[in-house]
Amino acid sequence: MTSPASHPASGTLSYEQAGVNYDLIDPLKVAAQRAAAATGAHLAHHGFSEVAASRGESAYVVDVGPFYIASIVECLGSKALVADEMNKLTGKSYYDSIAQDTIAMAINDLITVGATPLVVQAYWAAGGSDWFSDAQRAKALVDGWKRACDTCKVAWGGGETPALAGIVADGRIDLAASCTGIINPRERLSVGDKLGAGDAIVLLASSGIHANGLSLARKLVERLPNGYLTEVEPGVSYGEALLAPTVLYSPVTEALYAAGVKPHYCANITGHGWRKLLRHPATLTYRIHSVPSVTPVLKFMQEHAKQDDKEAYSTLNMGAGFALFVRAEDAQKTVVVAKAQGIDAIVAGVVEAGPKKLIVEPLGIEFGDDALQLR
Amino acid sequence: MTSPASHPASGTLSYEQAGVNYDLIDPLKVAAQRAAAATGAHLAHHGFSEVAASRGESAYVVDVGPFYIASIVECLGSKALVADEMNKLTGKSYYDSIAQDTIAMAINDLITVGATPLVVQAYWAAGGSDWFSDAQRAKALVDGWKRACDTCKVAWGGGETPALAGIVADGRIDLAASCTGIINPRERLSVGDKLGAGDAIVLLASSGIHANGLSLARKLVERLPNGYLTEVEPGVSYGEALLAPTVLYSPVTEALYAAGVKPHYCANITGHGWRKLLRHPATLTYRIHSVPSVTPVLKFMQEHAKQDDKEAYSTLNMGAGFALFVRAEDAQKTVVVAKAQGIDAIVAGVVEAGPKKLIVEPLGIEFGDDALQLR
């Protein structure tokens, strides 16, 4: 890892320079994953079993007999810091969008295994009781949270609203969501055993940066003449554009099932950008022949961070928020179903026999087997 | 509410003075609860329904047909700050205990509705990547988390380990756990409809402060000559005593079901201390004829905070971590089953027809209907 100080201010800005050091987190992650894996056997005590293939996937799945239960907890990350800065500049509260982002982090992961999200729990840990005294902001958070639940047809079960002075920074809030769903009928289980050569790759449009890459986005603002108010396109500031809420994809996965399409695999494109297309453990080549148009704020970020395509696509979603791997004959139908839910989609590529590799043909870039280490 | 400044340093120290202002949190809570309640109807879209009586209880319950699913997310609170201070003083890491506390917050709530906990997810949000570089501390957290999962026979499904510089305070960690369980068979559902006059109240022993009342405990340390190293009893410091891990009660509730005892109601005694015995919405009188022995650290806190019994029992668990309301004829059996799991228990009282009231006869104190507003 290179330290930020060794680069001139105008140089390339990578994710590590923006302050997230995965080298320090990963040893703990590995230890935690090993310890966690050893606990799966406890389920036998209750007459159940884990779906071992879900370890390393985006949600954990338990076989309870008539169906499967999937569960997850997900963090918003640092996007709320952008909302706080923009609030200072515009007086508006963006916490309705932030609420949707938080729920999307959980829901969009949960659905990758074929689950229907049923219950969301809210985790809103504030830096002190006074966070909640801003009535406009608190109302926006509640309203946005409810609206996202309505969109996904999930029940908001409850949650926690602790005031954690000394742990959460003063004036800030740490937002997360947990989600429980079921995979019903059982044949909806999607943990990758069906993925194979010949499958089509359908990419669903993102709305912008979603909630990954925000450390980079916040670092970049230091380079902009008008900071968050710098225009990304006429009439749209960088801050506003960043705060476009993350797309909720569960209406698409539910509509697909209703239309008879059962994805062979799904990948939520979050941290690590398009490298997430390499998530499946199998040795397969993913050949992309069409890329979606890049959301203006992401194009803007790429330019100002002076990233080449390889770096940009390995960090940001670049217009694609969710990938569906479906039978070739279901590809067009998948696009039609997504569009009917108001979410743009394209048939972007194909899965081929071959070495583990992602080839983005229109851009002339490739990512190999070593590009993503999640397990 | 009275401000801390209006009391001399040697005066009575209440929970509000210790920095938690429930008046500011509650309006948001009420708005969130209303919005959440309106989302329960979404479950019909999936062919399911919520158990409406679980709204306002400690875990949210969905009827999925063959059984019920319960879910929850819970925060540790500020106990990790004590571990951090004690680490400076002793060089030891207490994060194995802290891990158990965090899981206990979720599990002990989930089991109140009759659920068997199946999956725990970890939410470990650090103030920066470097939190994870203290290998001893990170290992303690992982080991303690796994051990608590082993005790409760739950699968550790996974979780989130974000580095949230600027949101979580530098050098700190925000810990929470989500938990999903099932209520199986359906007759184990316990949302209070069976509670009635004549039921016995069995109290299960706590190990100390557990993870509620820590703001008060931390404030109190300013009054102690040797701070956290002040002895609570010979050879045991205040800090060590506070860090006794919260008892995990699910082995007791599982053993009770195996022994044929189905509680009519359960209350996890957390914030609001014994006022949690008034949690059930019915108009009933709870008459306590025997109180458990008070854990030394809680006795110590009561003395140094100069609290009378009414204030102490309305804030701290005072030796009782969990309440089981059972048929009178099951009371002794409940005690025997708990003790067989290594957890002390007493038949403490009885439920009577009468106004909503908790009468603690041995101490001559009462709490009325207005003592607890959770719904």
UniProtKB/TrEMBL annotation, chains A, B:
Record GO cellular component, one term: cytosol
Gene Ontology molecular function: any one: phosphoribosylformylglycinamidine cyclo-ligase activity
Pfam families: AIRS, AIRS_C
Keyword Disulfide bond: no
Associated pathway: Purine metabolism; IMP biosynthesis via de novo pathway; 5-amino-1-(5-phospho-D-ribosyl)imidazole from N(2)-formyl-N(1)-(5-phospho-D-ribosyl)glycinamide: step 2/2
Gene3D superfamilies: PurM-like C-terminal domain, PurM-like, N-terminal domain
One GO BP annotation of this record: 'de novo' IMP biosynthetic process
EC code: 6.3.3.1
Ranges annotated as spanning the membrane: none
UniProt keyword terms in alphabetical order: ATP-binding, Ligase, Nucleotide-binding
Domain PurM-like N-terminal: from-to ranges: 57-183
Span of domain PurM-like C-terminal: 197-356
Reaction(s) the record says it catalyses: 2-formamido-N(1)-(5-O-phospho-beta-D-ribosyl)acetamidine + ATP = 5-amino-1-(5-phospho-beta-D-ribosyl)imidazole + ADP + phosphate + H(+)
PANTHER family in UniProt: TRIFUNCTIONAL PURINE BIOSYNTHETIC PROTEIN ADENOSINE-3 (PTHR10520:SF12), TRIFUNCTIONAL PURINE BIOSYNTHETIC PROTEIN ADENOSINE-3-RELATED (PTHR10520)
Similarity remark: Belongs to the AIR synthase family.
Protein name according to UniProt: Phosphoribosylformylglycinamidine cyclo-ligase
Source organism per UniProt: Piscinibacter terrae
